[in-house]
Design brief:
Layout: E1 2-5, H1 12-21, E2 26-29, H2 32-37, E3 40-43, H3 49-58, H4 62-70, E4 75-78, H5 80-83, E5 86-89, E6 95-96, E7 101-107, E8 117-122, E9 124-125, E10 140-145, E11 147-151, E12 156-162, E13 164-171, E14 176-179, H6 187-192
Length: 193
């Protein structure tokens, strides 16, 4: 069973529908026992870093997520859910994140481009990662964001280019993954992820 964490921040229903399409058993929940009892955990999200962390704290989900990861459960953060897996975010001030991957989330600074970054961009592989299995060299995914990860290259499985390099798929080398793009809105490529 896949636990999709409900913290009132976004696209839970579209993530649930994507898993249903794949015939995966998924439940939207904020119940600690259900999350810790799940085989895999997904943290979707749309919105601002600080608000997301405030909601996660208010539902006592920070420790639950950290415990799930410590137990070795595969964990995927999507969009804002990916951003909060880092140590810090700087959207509307500095906020501590979940600290699952070392790094920070910073505002995109591309003066010649439209921010927020919205649309389809090519996924360019950088490091081997299980979530890239079956993904070809000319595949595109869908983004909607104004902030991006600033982390070690060893934690970047794939990136997209929008002005500069945008970490698109990050991982800790073990169980924690993050997709800045929306796999549930990225067609066949997103379904493979």
């Amino acid at each position: 069973m896949i636990a999709i964490i409900d913290y009132d921040a976004g696209n839970m229903k579209s993530v649930e529908k994507a898993f249903q399409y794949l015939n995966e058993d998924a439940v939207i929940t904020r119940d600690r026992k259900a999350i810790l009892g799940a085989d895999r955990v997904v943290l979707p999200g749309v919105g601002a870093f600080g608000d997301a962390m405030e909601r996660l704290h208010s539902y006592d989900l920070v420790e639950t997520i950290q415990d799930a990861v410590k137990s070795g459960k595969p964990f995927l953060g999507i969009c804002l859910g990916m951003q909060v897996i880092f140590s810090k975010g700087y959207e509307f001030g500095e906020t501590d994140g979940l600290g699952l991957i070392e790094g920070s989330v910073i505002k995109m600074d591309e003066p010649d481009l439209i921010i927020p970054h919205m649309g389809w961009n090519k996924l360019e592989k950088l490091n081997d990662c299980a979530l890239l299995n079956g993904i070809g060299d000319d595949e595109y995914v869908y983004f909607v964001h104004s902030y991006k990860a600033d982390c070690s290259e060893k934690n970047i499985a794939a990136f997209s280019t929008y002005g500069g390099r945008v970490p698109a798929l990050v991982y800790d080398g073990k169980y924690v993954y993050g997709a800045q793009f929306h796999p549930e809105k990225s067609g066949d490529t997103g379904l493979k992820v």
